[in-house]
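Q: What residues go here?
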């Protein structure tokens, strides 16, 4: 899968990454900067680089657009690593390594662009006070069921989901 092919089909780009071509391309320069910052100091395995780095054409993901497409499509669609690796012509262990590396680069990119979700409660209250319209996107998470019968009654209504 190559970014140059995917960007020609806007529906395919949106379904693979969740981004339009314009949104993707606006994210690309910052992602490229973060990638170059990492790759100039570290190898793909994470060890400190001893020699100057060169972007090799024989790399499994040689172009920066393909790297961003790789990680965004993985995060949006959550495929098996074996399947995702096959789409990008690599083995599952290689896919795993790239996922971990590019996830960190993407987090740094989003942090630089101030697009990460807010985790600090005080900061969140500050942001909410300054905004007129707020869209909350929450996920229901399972909780461990209490073993004590009296605690179970306080946590559950007794109605079964059918």
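A:
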């Amino acid at each position: 899968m190559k970014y140059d092919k995917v960007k020609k089909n806007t529906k395919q780009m949106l379904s693979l990454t969740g981004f339009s071509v314009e949104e993707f391309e606006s994210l690309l320069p910052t992602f490229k900067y973060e990638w170059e910052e990492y790759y100039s100091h570290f190898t793909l395995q994470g060890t400190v680089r001893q020699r100057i780095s060169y972007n090799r054409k024989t790399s499994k993901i040689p172009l920066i657009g393909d790297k961003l497409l790789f990680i965004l499509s993985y995060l949006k669609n959550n495929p098996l690593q074996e399947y995702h690796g096959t789409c990008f012509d690599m083995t599952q262990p290689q896919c795993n390594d790239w996922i971990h590396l590019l996830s960190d680069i993407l987090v740094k990119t989003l942090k630089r662009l101030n697009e990460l979700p807010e985790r600090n409660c005080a900061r969140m209250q500050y942001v909410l006070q300054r905004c007129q319209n707020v869209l909350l996107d929450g996920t229901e998470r399972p909780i461990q069921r209490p073993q004590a019968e009296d605690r179970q009654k306080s946590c559950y209504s007794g109605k079964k989901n059918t």
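A: Context that may help when evaluating the design: The longest helix spans residues 21-41. Helices lie at 3-6, 10-17, 21-41, 64-77, 81-87, 92-112, 121-130, 149-155.
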